[in-house]
What we know:
The chain contains three helices and two strands, in the order ααββα. It has a two-stranded antiparallel ribbon. The protein is an alpha+beta fold.
Amino acid sequence: VVNDLQQEERFRGLPFxxxxxxxxxxxxxxxxSHSGINLGCLFVLDPEPRQGLSDIEKDTLGRVAExxxxxxxxxxxxxxxxxASRLSRGLHL
Length: 93
């Protein structure tokens, strides 16, 4: 969580802070696979500075990150299933 991006030297010059949309607040959580690999980050930005996230907001951000990871897992399993099906059909020709 960064309450005011413009007040932090390391973020002040970033295009989305210095130029449009002039983001001020950032909160993020990692997107981590079941095997512990960090794939990226789910984050929210606000054009207004804030004083952190409420417990409900933190919980919601974490739950949405879990839903994203579940979706990615199901998508990967579906792609692997399609690949296995094509391979199986190819072997039977």
